UniProtKB/TrEMBL annotation:
This is PLP-dependent aminotransferase family protein. It comes from Pseudaeromonas paramecii. InterPro entries: Aminotransferase_I/II_large, Class-I_PLP-dep_aminotransf, PyrdxlP-dep_Trfase, PyrdxlP-dep_Trfase_major, PyrdxlP-dep_Trfase_small. It holds the Pfam family Aminotran_1_2. One of its GO terms (molecular function) is transaminase activity. The keyword ATP-binding does not apply. Its cofactor is pyridoxal 5'-phosphate. It comes from the Bacteria. Coiled coil: none annotated. Residues 45-374 form the Aminotransferase class I/classII large domain. The keyword Transferase applies.
């Protein structure tokens, strides 16, 4: 009865965990939720009446101008005509997948990568091929080998404070990746929803700005710097790709919601935008630091990790690897939630022994208790393993 692709449509483990994690009393390190205390209170009464009407598929012209100007400040040379306002950066994944993918098309992704991107690409029956991440960026030799052997349709990278690993590519890695993509003329989808959540002032030129000839799409979002509920993001594309992406957007939902775009433009124009961002960064830096301290106290003997310079996540690698997926049930029974790391790998048989912990959502006074509960889950699992061994 249904289209073939529906058989590949898995339910998102994220959505399931988020539902369980919202039970009262559960301390959740699972989702990627920005802290609600940071959301501004919109003055909806000031919404101009014309905004209630249908709008343009490309997005509000003034917002497109503002987005292009901000991208130029990051070093990405572009015009407003290259900006498409989308319903969250999640929609960009869908549009780009529709543009490039046929059944069985290979896509180059990071290993690990954003779970909902895997879900989206797989819906188009793509074959996601992972390239391992090292300490400063992807393994370039493996990336080159994947491009040569698999001929992917495009590459999907999250270079700044990656979800789930927290990795921020070094400038040298960005340059090397750009050179590699140029050499193979491989299109790049660069997904940067965490770029502004930078707590240590890291240099991070967009890889798209370093490309000389490969086609590119750069994505950003207002979800993490303003609020995710308005569902406003943007993509900026090489001029050759724009007409196709605009038509795909039109076919998908006509245009992004206009009150949300209005709010995003108010934010972009606000005189205190920089101060608001700095406040947000201070807020998250404190949470990151509180989390790092509690993690060092509770998990130093169980796992290894790097404290991230930005974003929302810490990525843990267990010293004694075990599949963390079956532990989620026990964790929820213990009133704590985490994200099993295995789900973020493209492989059919993913490597085991990883977990992703969100540090932005839990108030500092609950972090220690949450990590204590989580530690107990792992201690019990290791003890049970020892009994059965
Ligand atoms: C890497 C990545 N891309 C895209 C998204 C989707 O964000 P948006 O709220 O802009 O749709 C997320 C959300 O967490 C993400 O982590």
């Amino acid at each position: 009865m249904f289209a073939q692709r529906i058989s590949t449509l898995s339910s998102s483990i994220i959505r399931e965990i988020l539902a369980a994690a919202q039970q009262p009393g559960v301390i959740s390190f699972a989702g990627g939720l920005p802290a609600a205390d940071s959301f501004p209170e919109p003055n909806w009464a000031a919404l101009p009446p014309q905004i209630k009407q249908y709008g343009m598929s490309e997005g509000e012209p003034e917002l497109r101008e503002a987005i292009a100007a901000a991208a130029r400040e990051k070093g990405l040379q572009c015009e407003a005509s290259q900006v498409l306002v989308i319903s969250g950066s999640q929609q960009g994944l869908d549009l780009v997948a529709k543009l490039f993918l046929d059944p069985e098309s290979p896509v180059l992704v990071e290993s690990p990568t954003y779970l909902a991107a895997l879900q989206c690409f797989r819906l188009f029956q793509a074959r996601c091929v992972g390239v391992p991440l090292g300490e400063t960026g992807p393994d370039l030799a493996q990336m080159d080998a994947v491009i040569r052997s698999q001929a992917p349709r495009f590459s999907y990278l999250i270079p700044s404070f990656q979800n789930p690993s927290g990795l921020c590519y070094s400038v040298a890695a960005r340059q090397a990746v750009a050179a590699l993509l140029d050499r193979h003329q491989l299109p790049l989808l660069e997904d940067e929803p965490y770029c502004e959540l930078d707590y240590d002032g890291v240099a991070k030129p967009p890889i798209c700005s370093l490309l000389k000839s490969a086609p590119w799409i750069y994505q950003g979002s207002f979800s993490k710097i303003l609020m995710p509920g308005i569902r406003v993001g943007y993509l900026i594309a090489h001029p050759s790709l724009m007409p196709h992406l605009v038509r795909l957007k039109q076919a998908s939902d006509l245009h992004t919601n206009r009150p949300g775009q209005w709010l995003a433009l108010e934010y972009m124009r606000s005189a205190d935008k920089q101060a608001r961002l700095a406040k947000l960064q201070d807020f998250y830096r404190l949470r990151r630091d509180a989390f790092a301290k509690a993690l060092a106290e509770q998990f130093a003997d169980l796992a290894d990790w790097q404290v991230p310079s930005g974003g929302l996540f810490v990525w843990l690698k267990l010293k004694r690897p075990m599949d963390t997926r079956p532990l989620l049930k026990q964790a929820l029974a213990n009133q704590v939630a985490f994200m099993p790391g295995e789900a973020f790998f493209a492989d059919d048989e993913p490597p085991v022994g990883y977990l992703r912990l969100n540090f932005s959502h839990t108030p500092p006074e609950l972090i220690e208790e949450g990590l204590r509960r989580l530690r107990q889950v792992f201690e019990e699992a290791y003890a049970a393993q020892a009994v059965t061994a």
